[in-house]
Each structure stands twice: as C-alpha cells, then as structure tokens.
Amino acid sequence: MMFEQLGLIGCGLMGGSFALALKKAGLVKRVVGYSKSPATTERARQLGVIDAQAPSALLAAAGADIVLIAVPVASSEATFQSIRPMVTVQTLIMDVGSTKNDVVQAARRGLQDMVSSFVPAHPIAGKELAGVDNADADLYRGCQVILTPTEVTRADHLQRAAEIWRALGSRVVQMTPQAHDTTFAAVSHLPHLLSFAQMNAVCGQSDGENFLALAGPGFRDATRIAASDPSVWRDILLSNRTEVLAQCQLLRDQLQMFEVAMQSADQAALQALITQASNARAQWRMSAIA
Amino acid sequence: MMFEQLGLIGCGLMGGSFALALKKAGLVKRVVGYSKSPATTERARQLGVIDAQAPSALLAAAGADIVLIAVPVASSEATFQSIRPMVTVQTLIMDVGSTKNDVVQAARRGLQDMVSSFVPAHPIAGKELAGVDNADADLYRGCQVILTPTEVTRADHLQRAAEIWRALGSRVVQMTPQAHDTTFAAVSHLPHLLSFAQMNAVCGQSDGENFLALAGPGFRDATRIAASDPSVWRDILLSNRTEVLAQCQLLRDQLQMFEVAMQSADQAALQALITQASNARAQWRMSAIA
Asked: Are A250 and B205 in contact (CB under 8 A)?
C-alpha cells in the first residue's frame, strides 16, 4: 500500500499531521497541498509538510490517488464540489471532520456519483494549539479513528482507509454516521458546550475576575476545552445540533435531579447521585492502544 | 513560631498532609491524632503522620496549642462541641473545609465563647486519591489558602495562621466567609456538580457504555473531578446549596443562550458565545507561586 500523491486540502493541524505521518510511514511519494490562506500553504511547504503548493482545491486533487479533506465541516460541501472533476473511482477520499451525518450529506451533493470513493473518517485526536506549525507526525499514534461508511462506500476504499490509519498507529472503529454523531454529541460536543457555558457563566458576573483568580485545578481541567477554536466549534455544534440539543436536555434533566436533592436537603438522594457519577468515572479508562 | 503539640482531628489526606508538612517545616514537636475510624488513626501512626493516637477528638485536643480539624464539613459542629472543654484562648484552631459560612456557624455554636480562637481556612489543594496513605508533606506547597476570619476572630491567631501556611509554601488570601462561598460555588462546586451530572447523563442512556468507550481526552478532563469522594461532595453541595443553586441557575441561563443559537442556526450568535468563552479561558492562568 503505497500512494503516489496525497492531495491535502486544508493544511492545518489535522491535515498537516496526516501528511507528515503518511510521509514518515513511507506511504506516500509526494504531497500537494492547498489551504484557503496562501500564507498557510506557503508555511506548510516551508515546513516540509507538503512538497508543492496548489492554487486551488481542484489542483491539489489533480493527479492524487488519495485526497484528505481537512477543512472546517461547514466548508465540506464546497470542497467536495470543487474537487469533483478530478475525482475518479480509484481516488480514495477521506475527511477528518468531527461530525459525520452532515459531511456524508455534503459528500452526496458535492461528489454526486463519485461519493462511493469517499470514506468518512474522524480521528479522535487534537492539540491545544492549532495550525500547521503544530503539525505532528505522531498526532494520530495511539488514538481512535472512527470510519463511518455508508451503503454506497466502496469496500476496497474502506479497507485501504482502515489500513492507512492502522499503519499510522491508530485504532480503527467502524460505525454508522448517525451512531457516530449521537456518541460524540454525548462525549465531546456537549462537554465542549458545557465548558463554554461555564466560562461565560463565571465571566458574566460582576465579580467574575475575582472568582477566576481563585480557581484551582478542578476548574482548570473542567474548562480546558473551553479554549477550543470558536469557528471549528461553531460549525460542529451547528452541524450536529439535533443530537447536541438532545444531549443537552438529558443533562438538564440530570442537573434538575441534583437541584431537587439540594433544595430538599435530601442527603441520601444527593449521595446516591454523586456515587453513581463517581463510580462510573472511577471505573472509566480512556481507550488507548497498548 | 514553634508549636508544642498539634491536635489533629481527622487523619485523612488533608489532615495527614498538614501534619507531615508541619513536621517537615520543623514547626511542631509532636502530633496527637484522632480519626473516627480507629484503623485510620492506627495507620496514621504507622506512617509517622501522627506520634500518638487519641481515643477521642477531645483527647486529641488536650494539651495542644494548635488544633487542625480536617473532617467532612457536616461533622464540623459535633467536632467543635467535643473539643470545646479543652480549648483556651491560646489554642489556635483551624479547619480545612471547602465551605465557610456553615463552618463558621458550626464554630459559633460548638465553640461558643472560644470561637475567637478559630481561624477558618480552606487550602485549595487535593489529590485524586484520598486517605492517609496518600498524605504528602508537599501537598500545600504552591497552593492558595483562603482564610475567612470573622469579626470575633483574634488578630494574633489570624496572624499566626497566615504565617503557618506561608511557611508551608502556600499563598494566603483573606476574604469573608460569604465571599468565599460565592467564589467557590462558581469555580469549584458548580464544576463538580456539572461533572457529576455529565457522567450520569451519559451513563443513563442505553448506549452509555458504548459512548464511554469512544470518549477521548476532552471528556477525560471535563469529567476528571466527577470521581471525587461522594460523602465529601454531598456535604459541600448541601452546606453551600444556596450559592450552588444560584450558580446553577446562571449556568442554565448561559446554556439556554447556546441552545437558542443552535435552534435558530444563528452562526454569528453561536460564534460570539464561543469566542467569549474561548478568549476568557485562553487568557486565564491558574494562580501559582513563582
């Protein structure tokens, strides 16, 4: 499994890291990259993340036998549309988006009959610091990658996609786009939303600055993800809003149980609620490759 | 500033670490300890955290010139009451509780005229693993300690309390019990509550186990504090419930702004909300001693 040319569309942290990882693993001969910002594309070339700069997504895809789309999810459809003329049934196309239902729909509309070449992918990886300067050949080592093929996805492409991610040290999990979006609404999108809301709730108070000055390690960890990129998360929350809103309602129901227990000073009920959470969290271990 | 005898009531992580730190700093000659569980007191002696075991809180306080009460906040009043006969105006009494209004009230009732000897203290420190086995002479190094004296607190005791914590490497901050409780409802108690509610919301779903298996570093950090000790947190949430419920309402208001923006697919509003949170979190740095 060796690719001649990777067409990289979006040379940020995720895309740049994929290019570096593919090179390091000896899986690709050359990388042609395009980013919306010419400065980013130029920087990616300087850093050796890509070998040549393309002036458009279309030209980044030209001649590529593998294309990675690593753009904000809201830009997916326009990107699929623009590369459509260069895509053949032999081209393996993947993305790295954090939502999948909407990306699959965007691919159907944008790629039309070539949608069978698209293997939707979501690597559960990231860093505090975005941008190509933080691209890292080992970003995907030890992480999970979710592949969400549809009924039209070519089996050979799906197979190769799984092999690539495994070769980069990732663990591959397969599920439907819908199951993916429900899962990540629960364990990623809602936690981000709550983290944003917590920061704003503290800062919105007149003494907010004083409160923050005294916050400790618990607050630090609970709100770490609030520092995430606003455009990226605006897109994720909007594109998966049905599932996120449903998870938000479940959270509100749970909050209410705590509130009722506190209001009625019900020690036993409160202890039971906390014990359930504490046991579940103490038993949980993040999946990782040994 | 050298103490003859520390009476340690509650030989867990917080109390045990204080005893070890005081010894390491050469600030105390001997430590007499008492815990509700005789096994804990025995273990504390085996570990050298205390030098002698007392069969009661009263006898742990007997002959002590400094008393540290490190019991669950709900047990504060009973503890103050039981040591009252051994307390003089010369005895410096401190606690390490995470709420202060209720502890101050408990001290008024329990210590009566000796309440002037009590300096309410809350060191912002802790560990995942509780218990005397995890006691650590350096637990308080580099952390903040909030002292919340009242109008009856003796100035000389307050002064000595501040000196002790500084000698242990902590940064001392002084505020009213009420300001303390509002602050920590916002930056500690509500984050814990949200973390508990998040765990329960995920686990309460039929696919909860599958969701958890795919959760990544964002979830790990956002829910880390959900593994906290249930009895300790039941007490904290109950004893500070007025403030916690008020903070919870502010959080609900913020959540609703996000929900409305998602429901109406209002990109600009959502981006503004996230940007506010992201900037605030990116600029925030946890206070630490240089």
From this structure: yes
